[in-house]
Every structure is written in C-alpha cells, then in structure tokens.
Amino acid sequence: MLFLGAVGAFAAWLYVGQGPDVAWKTVGGHVVTFGVSAALAGLIVLAASRNAAQGRYLPVALAALMFVNAMALTYAPLVIDGFPEFGTLNWAGKTLALVFVVMSFALLPAALRRETGILALPRAGSLRAVLIALGVFAGLGVALTFAGGADDNLLEQTAFQLTLPSLSEEFLFRGILLALFLRVATGGRTVLGAPLGAPVLATSLMFGLVHGFLFGPSVGFVFDPVPILATGVLGAAFAWLTLRSGSVWPAVIAHSLLNATGPALRLAGVV
Questions:
Q1: pLDDT tens, 156-181?
Q2: Is the backbone of residue 246 left (phi > 0), alpha (psi -120 to 50) or beta?
Q3: CA 20 to 30 Å from 148, out of 66, 94, 227, 264?
Q4: Spatial distance between the Cα atoms of 232 and 32, rounded to a whole number of angstroms
C-alpha cells in the first residue's frame, strides 16, 4: 500500500508539473496493463471458489496489490528519466522487484510463508519428476539457442538470466501469488501428480500478460498473443513443478536454465 501511494503521488506530481500526457505515458498506461492482468486473474480464482465467505476476497486483493507493486518497481528504471542504470540490462528494476517480494514474503503470516514453498526443499518422492523436468527445460534452452539471440554482452546476459528474472518472478508468481490463490480456490485436474486448477491458470495468465500485454509511450497498448501464450504455458509448467515438488526452487532453476542456456553456450563458443 505504501508503495502504491508513492506511485500515485509520483503520477500526481507528473500530472501537475508536466501535464496529463506525461503522467499517462510514464505511469498511467503501465498501471492499467498491470491492473487488467490482476483483475482477470482475480476473477478466474473467485469464479472457481466454492467459499462464499467475504474473507475469500482478501487473498485476491493482496495478490493484486503485490503484483502491481512488483511490476511497477520492475518498470520504474525504464520509465523514469535519470534513474541509475547498471549495465545494459534491467538490473535495477529486477533487483527492486526482488527486494520488494522478499520483504513482502517476510511480512506474511508464518503459515502462508510455508505454503509459498520458498523456504522448502523438494519433498521426498518428487526428485525423479524434478530432474526429468529440469532436463526438459535445459533441452528447451538449448533449442532456443539456435533460434537466435543477441551476441552482445554475453557475460552480462548469462549472469543476469541466471539470477534476477528467475528469482524475482518465481518467488512472486509461483511462490506468493500461487499460495494466495490456493487459499481461495483449490482442486482442479491432477496432471502427473500435481493439481492444475484455477490458481495455476490465474498465475499463468498474469505471467503471460506481463510478457505480451504492454504499454509503450510512443505506441500505446500492445497486445501480442504469441508471447502471452508461450510464457503462459511456461508459467503453467513452472507452477506444476512447484506443486509437484512442494518447493519453488525447482521452478527457479528451470527458469534460469531456460533463460541462461543460450547466452551461456554462445559465451562458451559452443554455438
């Protein structure tokens, strides 16, 4: 709430000092995309809930607030003029988002912290499934290497992709948000030992939309179904891995393998 207040204050300052057009392009358009994503996910989870109690709205509202906060922090260095930059990638934004997610995790009730799987190791009996899944993601990372990619700053690309995106995104989407939604709606069809229901659909939709429903100051809203579908499916796979293992860490490793294999192989001169 405090950070949302800061975002609102910043938008108001831009509105008064530089006009509504600047405020919209810097803050408003981005917040709309985040809000739409959170609203759609919340509706999916609430529609699947069998609990008519008023308390079911609290986890959904908390998830929406945390999602909007984390996404706003991720984009802040990209839209605020003069924001300190580190390297050629969004180190600052991803670091801010990760710090926010970790602080939010620390403030959660103890029972909910356990449900996120952030402090848990994979449960007994899930190791084989986890290793197979990690092998699949490593293979997918190799396959994507041949699809092309930038050859600039390969060391930085590898270091970045091994760490910040996977940590910040998995802690948020497959850790906290999935745990909150599971408090509202459970069940779903069990696929290879893990339930894939409304909470997985909702978090996967949010994950897809932040990669394909975007706002650009010069072009306005951009809706690209290909990355939305692709990253949404990957998000569902990461969620399956989290639920199957009882820990978010296999998803973190899978995400890192997927992102970093390409630049690492090009850095090593393998391809």
A1: 999 999 999 999 999 999 999 999 99
A2: left
A3: 94
A4: 20
Distance of CA 208 to the CA centre of its chain: 9
What is the span of the domain harbouring residue 251? 2-267
Q: Which amino acid is at 141?
A: G
Site of tokens 């997610």 = 101
Question: DSSP for 174-209?
Answer: IIIIHHHHHTT----EEETTEEESHHHHHHHHHHHH
Within the chain, strands assigned E span: 189-191, 194-196, 213-216, 220-223
Domain count, the chain: 1
pLDDT tens, 67-121?
Answer: 988 888 888 887 777 778 888 999 999 999 999 999 999 999 999 999 999 999 9
